[in-house]
Amino acid sequence: MDAARRLVKESGMAGQKVTIIVPSEQHGSATAEDIRYTLDTLGFKATVRSISPAIAFTYIQNTRNHYQIALAGWNADYPSASSFLQTLFSCETFHPNSDNSPNYSGFCDPQIDQLMHKAATLALTDRSASNHVWADVDRQIMQQAPFVPLTQTQRVVMFSRRAKNIVVTLNDEILYSQIQLH
């Protein structure tokens, strides 16, 4: 922590105001307070701003709102690298001053965009090669850290032995209409 404080001081950013946006939900607020405390300890002047979950998603997409940190999540419609990486980090999905800009961070790297296009094209003919390129895209994005992943949700579902015909979709959704009890 001492080294981090020193780096903040050397950067000239000590005392900088940092706003953390969080949907007003119980678990997100605790995480936001932990981040605020850490930032304060490092020498920033951090505050947490809770906003209604009903507007949080569009609020954090709009660059006019000038916040520094937002706690947000993403659940892909389809379990593929493109549903995450292209949506959240491609130049095409960043729309400044818009409530419809899923690239919240404003990350744009034309070379990485070219790699994403290559991976998407390869997916049509060579899934394995595509997955390797997507892995490279992921590494390159994370090296630049436009996002900081904090958690990953895992769903655990338990059923009675009497439950049969349990269908789980690619997005871990259960088709309750298909369950049969014996």
What does this structure look like?
- By secondary structure, the chain is an alpha/beta fold.
- It has a domain of 72 residues.
- The protein is built from six helices and five strands, in the order H-E-H-E-H-E-H-H-H-E-E.
- The longest helix is centred in the last third of the chain and has 18 residues.
- The chain is globular, with a radius of gyration of 20 Å.
- The model has no long low-confidence stretch (mean pLDDT 90).
State the total count of DSSP E strands. 5
Give the class from helix and strand content and strand pairing: alpha/beta
Q: Assess the beta-strand content as a share of residues.
A: 5-15%
Mean pLDDT: 90
Number of helices: 6
From the alpha carbons, calculate the radius of gyration and give it in angstroms. Answer: 20 Å
Secondary-structure element pattern, one letter each: HEHEHEHHHEE
Residue ranges: pLDDT <50 for 5 or more in a row?
Answer: none
Main beta sheet: 3 strands, parallel
Approximate shape: globular
Q: Roughly what percent helix? A: 40-55%
Order of the strands making up the biggest sheet: 2-1-3
